[in-house]
Amino acid sequence: MKKYTYTEKKDTRSGFGAGLLEAGKNNPEVVALCADLVGSLKMEAFIKEFPERFFQIGIAEANMIGIAAGLTINGKIPFTGTFANFSTGRVYDQIRQSVAYSDKNVKICASHAGLTLGEDGATHQILEDIGLMKMLPGMTVINTCDYNQTKAATIAIAEHHGPVYLRFGRPVIPVFTDPDQKFEIGKAWMVNEGTDVTIIATGHMVWKAIEAGEKLAELGIDAEIINIHTIKPLDEEAILKSVKKTGCVVTCEEHNKFGGLGESVARLLSTEFPAPQEFVAVNDSFGESGTPDQLMTKYGLDSINIIEAAQKVLKRAKK
Amino acid sequence: MKHTIKELEDIAFQVRRDIVRMVHGCQSGHPGGSLGCADFMTALYFEVMNHSADFTMEGKGEDLFFLSNGHISPVFYSVLARSGYFDLSELATFRKLNSRLQGHPTTHEGLPGIRIASGSLGQGMSVAIGAALGKKLNKDTSTVYSLHGDGELQEGQNWEAIMFAPFNKVDNLISSIDYNGQQIDGPTEKVLSLENLQAKFEAFGWHVINSDGNDMDSIVKALHYAKSLTGKGKPILNLMSTQMGSGVDFMVGSHKWHGVAPNDEQLKTALDQLTSTLKDY
C-alpha cells in the first residue's frame, strides 16, 4: 500500500476559494455570484481582488442561476456559490432550462454537500445532488477530495467550456494530494495499485478509502484504490481496467446510494463487465443533526464500512 | 424612424398571418399571446432595437432581446425570420420533428436569434439581468429587452429578479409585460390577481411606463421613451396593455385561444381578416 501522509487539515471549500481567486487572475472573464454565503464559500479573496466582477445576489438562488446564465452570453464565465442543497434541488428547473438545455458556461459551485455539513441537519444536508446533476445532459459533475484537488479543479473548470457542477464540503480534512497537481476533468486518479479488490471513492470518502486500504493490507488484502473525482463524464476505461484485474468493486460516496457514483459504476459494469459490487453510501435516507464524524459513523461512511464491504465483495469476486 | 407606422403595421399584419398559419400547420401551439404581442415584437425588431441578423451569441454592440414567456414562440420565430435571421420557409417546420423551431424557443438546435431556452416560466428576467450586467462589464452601452407574460408574474423567481434589478441599478434593461389579463385557466383576476402591477413595480424601484401594446404608434413611442430612460439608475418596466388574440375577431380577449390551434375553417376566417402585406412563407 502506497503511503499517504498529511501535515495539515483544511476544508475543501477553502480550496475552492483559493482556486476561484487563481481562476480570476488567469482569466478576466471569470466572474462570481453568491447567494448570501460569501464567508461559507470562502469567496472573500476573489471579492477583494475583483470587486466589480462579483455579484451579491441575496437569498435568491433561482435568480442567481438565471443571472449567471445571462452573464455567459457576454462571454463571462460565472461561478455561482451557495450550499449544495440550494445549488441543486432548490434550482433544478433553472439549471435544467437556463443552463444545461441552453448550453451555458456556468460553474455551479456547491459547498456543504452531504452529511458532513453536520449540525444544521437534514434540511441542509443534500444527499441527492450528484444524482440530480448527473442526469442533466451535458452537465459535468465533479466531487473533490481535499483542499489541493478542489483548488486545482476550480482552476480547471474555468478553462473547460460547458456547465459544471463542482461539489465540495464544510469540514477540515487531511490535505494529501499534490499541491501542484494538474486537474484533468474526467480522468481517474490511481491512488494505489492493487490486485484483490477495486475501491472507487469520491469526495471526503477518498481519505477514508486510503485508511481502509492500509487496514486491508494488514489483513493481507491488496486493494486498488481509484479516486473518481469526475462522476460525469465517468472514466470508464480506468474503472474497467481495474475491475477486469480485481474482479470486484466497492464504491464509496457521501451521497444516497440511489443516483450516485455507485450507480454510475454499476451501469458501466453491468453492460461491459458484470462484477460483484458493494455500495458504501447512505442507504436511501435523510441525514440529521450531529457532528460530521458522528454522522459518518452512524450512516455507515467510515473506513471500517469500506473494509467490511471489501471483505464481503471479495467472497463474491469473479476470479 | 426606420419605418413609418403604416409600414410597421403592415409587417405586423404579415406576422399575424405567419402565426395563425404556423399554429394551424402543426395543429398545436399558442396563437392568443402570439397575436397579442405581434405589434410589440414588430416594433422591437423592425424599429427600436439595434441588432444584426448576422447572429452571434454574444451580440457585441447590439441590443439583445429575451423572451421569457416562451410559449408565444410563433411571434418570435416570425419576426426573426422576417428580420432575416433564417429562411422564411423554415417557419413551416414549427413544432415538427427535426425542426429548429421547437415548441418553445431553444438554443439547443442552433436557431439564429435565440440566446436562451424559455418555456418553463419565470426565468427570463433573471437571464436578461445577467446579460445586462455582462454588457456593463464589457462597457457595451447597448440595451437589453425582455418580454414577460402577466400570468407569468405569478412565478416567484420574477420577484427575486424584480427586487435585484433596481437595487443593483440595472438601468440598461427594458422589460415589458404582456398585460392581457388572461391565462390558461381564465382571467388573471380570477386565477390569481396581480392587483396593482404598476404600484408593485414602482415599490420595488422600477421606472414604470404604460403603453397600448396593440397600437403601433403607442408602442413605438413607449419603447423610444423607455430607451431615453436608460442609463439613469433604474430598470424600466413597460406595462403594455394587450388583447390576447389581437387581430383575429373570434380569438380576441379570450383565454380559450391561449393554446389552441385553429381548424381549417377558422384559419380561413382568420386569414380573411389579415391582409397579406409581405409574401406568405
Structure description:
The complex is a heterodimer of chains A (319) and B (281). Chain A is built from 12 helices and 14 strands. Chain A is an alpha/beta fold. In chain A, strands 3-2-4-5-7-6-12 form a 7-stranded mixed sheet, with helices on both faces. Chain A has a 5-stranded mixed sheet with strand order 9-11-10-13-14, sandwiched between helices. A two-stranded antiparallel ribbon of chain A has the order 1-8. In chain A, helix 10 links the parallel strand 13 and strand 14. Chain A is globular and about 55 Å long. By secondary structure, chain B is of the alpha/beta class. Chain B has a single domain (5-273), classed as Rossmann fold (3-Layer(aba) Sandwich). Helices cover 39% and strands 12% of the residues of chain B. Chain B contains 10 helices and 7 strands. In chain B, strands 1-2-3-7-6 form a 5-stranded parallel sheet, sandwiched between helices. Chain B starts with a helix and ends in an 8-residue tail after the last helix. At the A-B interface, helix 3 and helix 5 of A face helix 5 and helix 6 of B. Chain A: This is Transketolase. Chain A: Its cofactor is thiamine diphosphate.
